[in-house]
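Why does residue order matter? Because the sequence determines the fold. Keep that principle in mind as you read this record.
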Amino acid sequence: MSTFTRSSTSTSTSTSTGSTSDGKNGTKNGTTDGTLNATTTETNRRPRLSGMTWLVWRQHRAAFWTILAATALSVAWIVYQRGQLVDFLDGYGYPGKSLDEAGGTFQQYSDAFSFVSMGLQAIPVLLGVFLGAPLIAGDLENGTAKLVAAQTTSRTRWLATKLALTGLVVVVSTGVLSAVFGWWFNPVKSEAMAMDWTSGEAFNTTGPVPVALTLLSVFGGVALGVVLRRTLTAMVVTFGFTVVLQLVWGYFLLSLGNVVTVTTNKGVMGESGPPSLPRGAYEIDQSYITGSGDLMGWGTCAGSETDAARQVCLDKADVVGWSTQYLPLSQMNAMQWFGASILFALTAGVVAFLFFWGRKRLV
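Structure:
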C-alpha cells in the first residue's frame, strides 16, 4: 500500500512539475522524450527474424552457424594461400617463365590446391547427410511435424520456410567458397600441373557447379528423409545418393562441352607431328586420318622394323595426317553453367516433389 502511495505521489509531483514548467524543464523533458521515442523507433526498425522464420532458424541454428563459421575460416585460409601463391609467381617470373621449369618448388602450392579441393568436394556429401536428411525426418520422427500441423500455420508455409532458409545458407556458403577458390586458382588456371580444369578438383569447386551440386544433394536428402521418416536411415541412404550423384556427374562431365577437332594432311612421319593445341586445352583423343576421312589408331604400322617399312605401311593404309580432338579452356565457364542448369532443374523437380508429397503426408 505504501509503495502505491509513493508512486502516486511521485506521479503527481511529476505531473505538477510538467504542467507548471513551460521553460527549461518543459523543453528538457520534451527533448528527452523525443530522443527516447526516436531511439525506440530506430530499435523497432532493425531487421529481426520473427514468426516461422525465427522458429526454423532457432531449431537449426547450431547447424547453420557451424556452416557459416566454417565458411568464414575457410575463406580466411584461402585468402592467405592466394597471397602466398601470388608472391611466388611474381618472384618466379610467371607467366614469362614456364612453371614446368619450377620443379619441386611449386609442389607445395599444388598440394594446397588438392587439399582444399578435396574438402570442397566433400561439402555436398556432408551437407546432404548431416543437414538435408535430418531436416524434416527428425521432425517426423519426434512428432514436431504433428505439433506444427496442429497450429494455424499451414504445412506448406512451414515446409517452404525450412527449405528457403536452408537453401539460403547453402547458397551463401558454397557460393562464397566457390568464388574465393576460383579467385585463388585463376592465376594458374591454364597449368595442368596445378590442377586439370576438366577434373572434379577444379570443375566441381569453382563457378556455379558447387552451389548446384550441394543444393541437389541437400534437397535430395530432405526428400529421402520425408519418404523414409527415420533420421538415421535417411542419413545412410542420403550418403549413398550423394556418392552416386558425384560419380554419375563425373562420368558425364566432359560431354557438357563441344569437342573441337583439328586435322593435318602432311603425313605422320618425321617432323609431321600432331597439331599443337591451345594453352590449357584438354586432349580427348588422337588418331591417324586417311585420305577418305576415316580414323585409325595411332599405333597403326607400329610393328614395322624400319622407318621405310613403316612409311610403306602407312601409304598402303592411305594415312595422310593426324586428327586430334580436344576441349579448349575457354569452354570451361559455359560448360559449368550448362551443367549447373541441369542440376538446378533436377533440384527444382525435387522441391516440387516435396511440396506435392508434403501437402497430404507431411505429418
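DSSP finds twelve helices and four strands in the chain.
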